[in-house]
Amino acid sequence: MSRSSNVFRRTTNLLMTHLKDQPVGAVVPSETALSRTLDVSRTTVRRVLQHAQDNGILATSGAGVTIRRHPVPEDFFSDTQISSRPELIENRFMDLVRRGDLRPGQQFSEADLARLSQTSTASVREFLIGFSQFGLIERRPRGGWRLCSFDEQFAKELSEMRALIELAAFDRFLTRDMTRQSERALKAFYDRHIQIRNDLETLYVGFPDLDKHFHAWIVSGMENRFASSHLEVISFVFHYHYQYEKAGEQKRNSIAINEHLMIIESLRSGDRDGARAALVQHLKTSETLLVSTLWPARA
């Protein structure tokens, strides 16, 4: 998939999300305004608007471009359609670990991961060789790989890197005016956190994915591709499910949810100093919980 096609499809999904919250008949913002909101070129905005008109979502009238109907799930591009080949492999591999389908010491093959990600074994091998630099996987004979454990020193070093990246991104975010896009994102994060907290016994297993997206949103304010790539590994480790005491997973998620809500509520109320202090506390808590639940700590 070309980069331009990827941008087009991601932008289409962003526009569909925006249109869902607007009434039918409402006038769509100008190309210039959408370009700023969606952070893409006007050329891309023009293509996306034409795509929406071709699919009957938007219409042109005397007032301008208006919403003809609300988007439905079929109007969105799937994760597979908007992800590059390396992203597909990485996402499938991370999902296997987060779900606990891969555990310390367990071996897996390039062929299995290629089948799950619908890519070639050569692409999978390239990804795994790059990922092995973090010391969490090791190569085995005949296209095999082994998932490794990590120790307390690894966890502390990772936590330190996480704090450096997220606080730098957060500080940059705090220097800017709050945009409508940020306000919508914060409301969506708030609503989802409350939903999980109100039915924690049933929904707590869905928190890792929410946690990943919330921290990705924080780091996105840094607009640094290297920071974003490191976040994937950090999220991978912090939800390395098999390293945790399963009996305490619900409690840990509850603590994280409440700390996230403190950050979100402070931002929504305009208390930027309070939001930063809440993030600092959350990062400290995350490190403490991660270190305390490593397997060596249980001996």
In terms of topology, how is this protein built?
Layout: H1 3-20, H2 31-38, H3 42-54, E1 58-61, E2 64-67, H4 79-82, H5 85-98, E3 107-109, H6 110-117, H7 121-131, E4 137-140, E5 144-147, H8 152-174, H9 180-198, H10 200-203, H11 207-220, H12 225-238, H13 249-269, H14 272-292
Antiparallel strand pairs: 1-2, 3-5, 4-5
Helix pairs in contact: 1-3, 2-3, 5-6, 6-7, 8-11, 8-12, 8-14, 9-13, 11-12, 11-13, 13-14
Structure description:
This protein is mainly alpha-helical. It folds into 3 domains: 3-75, Orthogonal Bundle (Arc Repressor Mutant, subunit A); 83-147, Arc Repressor Mutant, subunit A (Orthogonal Bundle); 152-298, GntR ligand-binding domain-like (Four Helix Bundle (Hemerythrin (Met), subunit A)). Helices cover 64% and strands 6% of the residues. The protein is built from 14 helices and 5 strands. It has helices spanning 3-20, 31-38, 42-54, 79-82, 85-98, 110-117, 121-131, 152-174, 180-198, 200-203, 207-220, 225-238, 249-269, 272-292, and strands spanning 58-61, 64-67, 107-109, 137-140, 144-147. The strands form 2 sheets. The chain has a 3-stranded antiparallel beta sheet. It has a two-stranded antiparallel ribbon with strand order 1-2. A hairpin with a 2-residue loop joins strand 1 and strand 2 (64-67). Helix 1 crosses helix 3 and helix 2 (31-38) crosses helix 3 (42-54). The longest helix is centred in the middle third of the chain and has 23 residues, at 152-174. The model has no long low-confidence stretch (mean pLDDT 84).
